[in-house]
């Protein structure tokens, strides 16, 4: 008995030591200087904040359709019908950006608000006016607009024709992109074509978590991936050929990328496979030297498809011309990063149906029980995973310019959000480590400016630097403690773990205007 107790104590001490070591790695600096030139901002997305879902000529998109379906698929039957009411409250939104002292604000455009028929035959003047107002208001205060063309809210009509699984989406998207560049490109100099291709394709077409909830894992996700990449590349080249000279902007994509850490040495291959399937599928064709889908993904899906009795791979092939078109089609790599997963392989555990995307990966995921969890169950605090991810992107893709397009932490609400503050400090610290070693990070974006519609979780998971009161028809926004801290990081251009803001004082605008 005593012996057993001894082993338990030893185990406990080892866990505590390991935990303390991880923690200390990311608050070892008293004060850490942030190199000049890195831009700081926050982000949101159209469906998550705008509301006004059927106002002023906007037509239905796939999230309107999903959230209005019965039985309601979202927690508490929440919808984005009103959301943060940003359609009417953009001036307050810009005021908050000024309070924070942001260099830029990343937001997305609602395709069905600008083109209610989905096509360029009819441009909705009122929808365009809203975005003009927002952009002009930001520029008045020297806040750069960073604009995402597509953050998941496809016009429903296009979905009825197969959405991202229909190869014609390439033309639909480039036509929409042309209109957008023509309308706003005189003032917008930072463009992201598509937000999180993995979530668009896997969660929407492979799984059923996001609209349009096709649930066609192992087929729909791969068809979407190919069409999406070609659509992105066509829009990129159109900008370069037709708009770049007069507008002088820069165009990229915003990919989600978690870090996959091997459980043990023998799981190194499983972890690498996970990285290549989960984000390499989208980044390799654009950023690798040879382009195309990652070799391991091509080989694995082809081999499994033949074993399963298919006549060809479930992963569609790029033609040689398409490989060339997609390769290099981004001025920078946008990365949305939140968390890490422990990865391993165990052939005797068959969890996934075959065929399916996860059956193709042949890897299993887990979390380390010492990792702190946010309100979102998938979001564990692992700052060193961010460092490892940035290091790998630097080495694999020949050090591309990187924009951190999202990074953030969820709570259940409340203004005293010390856990969010700790997350931001540790993740920015990890990013600075990668920068010190040569990573070319040019921008950092906190998700999010304010609480918003967190997809299937509705308003139950809060990511905002500002709290939004959803009981209040005015959707009043209030600065959280993290807003004060983020403001100070931007103002002082340094990371100070000991800085304590006085939140009894109102957060004020210091831009001298
Ligand atoms: C990434 C998505 O782009 C964004 O829409 C979402 O709210 C955050 N992740 C948090 O889950």
What is the topology?
Layout: H1 2-25, E1 31-33, E2 39-43, H2 46-49, H3 62-67, H4 86-100, E3 104-108, H5 111-114, H6 125-140, E4 144-150, H7 156-160, H8 169-184, E5 190-195, H9 197-206, H10 220-247, E6 250-256, E7 259-262, H11 268-287, H12 295-307, H13 320-326, E8 333-336, E9 340-344, H14 357-361, E10 364-366, H15 383-396, E11 402-406, H16 418-436, E12 441-447, E13 466-468, E14 477-479, H17 481-492, E15 494-496
Parallel strand pairs: 2-3, 2-12, 3-4, 4-5, 5-6, 6-8, 7-9, 8-11, 11-12
Antiparallel strand pairs: 1-15, 9-10, 13-14
Helix pairs in contact: 4-6, 8-10, 9-10, 15-16, 16-17
This protein binds 1-deoxynojirimycin.
The level-1 CATH class: Alpha Beta
Low-confidence runs: 1-5, 9-24
Structural class: alpha/beta
Count up the helices.
17
Q: Within the CATH hierarchy, at the fold level, what is the topology?
A: TIM Barrel
Q: Tell the overall outline.
A: globular
Count the domains. 1
Q: What labels describe this entry?
A:
42% helix, binds 1-deoxynojirimycin, alpha/beta, three-stranded mixed β-sheet
Question: How would you summarize this macromolecular structure in one to three sentences?
Answer:
This protein has 513 residues and is α/β, with parallel strands linked by helices.
Descriptive report:
α16 links the parallel β11 and β12. The N terminus is likely disordered. The protein is globular. It has 17 helices and 15 strands. The longest helix has 28 residues. It has one domain: Glycosidases (TIM Barrel). By secondary structure, it is of the alpha/beta class. α16 runs parallel beside α17. The protein starts with a helix and ends in a 17-residue tail after the last strand. The strands form 4 sheets. An 8-stranded parallel barrel has the order 2-3-4-5-6-8-11-12, surrounded by 5 helices. The chain has a 3-stranded mixed beta sheet with strand order 7-9-10. The protein binds 1-deoxynojirimycin. The site of 1-deoxynojirimycin has 9 residues, from loops.
